[in-house]
Design a protein that fits this description.
By secondary structure, the protein is an alpha/beta fold. 34% of the residues lie in helices and 16% in strands. The chain has one domain: Rossmann fold. It contains nine helices and ten strands. Helix 2 links the parallel strand 2 and strand 3. The two termini are 20 Å apart. The structure holds glutamic acid. The site of glutamic acid has 7 residues, from loops.
Length: 276
């Protein structure tokens, strides 16, 4: 038992729930429940262009149809902007960010990450970038082992607030993992490369860093990651075969159970991260 375990699933509602996202949701849910922890759902809808309320509703309905419900009220990032802005104000006060007016064209010409500090006119529309240092950050990923990343060289100075005034993923994810007291992050491997930048921001605010575990991605027949961008199909609701298929993709034992609830209970009891 791990009474202080708080896990989460944090979908971006830019499309319906597909098999890859059900697998991620299940992995974080089963790991939390197997350890006697809490599991929270957070809707990452900071990107107002790509995210649609109808997708949020559909994702939550689909998760609920598989008995995957949040142990606390669902947090919507689009409703957290005051908190995000106060964190940005704090970073500005401490000179830890700089304004950036680089155009798409200029960024393209960089041919790599944005590693310089711009001199921008603060009165004109600009993004805010967090200053990264040329320093390796190491962390032990529960599934991928020891990782060493250099946020400056790999990602550059990351945007935390965009020119269009939307807050960026890096700021929102760290702010909310802290706000929701998340202790364990279990998510897809596509986010592994962003982890050191997130740890860097946790350290900047002197917040506790959660434990990370990145699981392999579900791919289609062409070895492409199942994603909303690749138009992965929506999964049916409350479908026992789909649940069993997702558990098979996680390489978990599947019991003889005939309902979603009993299949899930069996999966919680027999969950093994080592098998994933
Ligand atoms: N919102 C992100 C996504 O849907 C996941 C963020 C995370 O788990 O840290 O890809």
């Amino acid at each position: 038992m791990h009474p202080s375990y708080v896990g989460r699933f944090a979908p971006s509602p830019s499309g319906p729930l597909h098999l890859g996202s059900l697998v991620s949701a299940l992995a974080s849910f089963l790991d939390a429940k197997h350890h006697g922890g809490k599991w929270l759902i957070r809707i990452e809808d900071v990107d107002s262009q790509r995210c649609k309320p109808a997708h949020s509703i559909d994702i939550l309905d689909t998760l609920a149809s598989y008995q995957l419900t949040s142990d606390a009220p669902v947090l919507y990032q689009s409703q957290q902007t005051e908190r995000y802005q106060s964190l940005i104000d704090e970073l500005i006060r401490q000179n830890l960010v700089f304004p950036c007016q680089c155009t798409r064209q200029e960024l393209k010409h960089l041919n790599g990450p944005h590693t310089h500090i711009c001199s921008s006119d603060i009165k004109k529309p600009h993004a805010w970038r967090l200053i990264s240092h040329n320093k390796d950050i190491s962390f032990l990923d529960k599934r991928q082992g020891m990782q060493t990343q250099n946020p400056l060289q790999q990602i550059g100075h990351s945007i935390i607030k965009r020119k269009d005034l939307d807050y960026a993923y890096l700021l929102a994810v760290v702010a909310d993992d802290h706000f929701q007291s998340i202790t364990h992050v279990v998510r897809g491997c596509d986010l592994l490369d962003t982890t050191a930048a997130q740890i860097n921001l946790f350290n900047t605010f002197e917040w506790n860093v959660p434990q990370y575990c990145h699981i392999p991605l579900v791919t289609d027949d062409n070895q492409l990651k199942l994603s909303k961008q690749n138009h992965a199909p929506a999964i049916p609701k409350a479908n026992l075969e789909t649940l069993k298929h997702a558990l098979t993709l996680l390489n978990q034992k599947i019991g003889p159970q005939q309902t979603i609830q009993t299949t899930l209970d069996f999966a919680i009891k027999n969950w093994s991260l080592a098998r994933v």
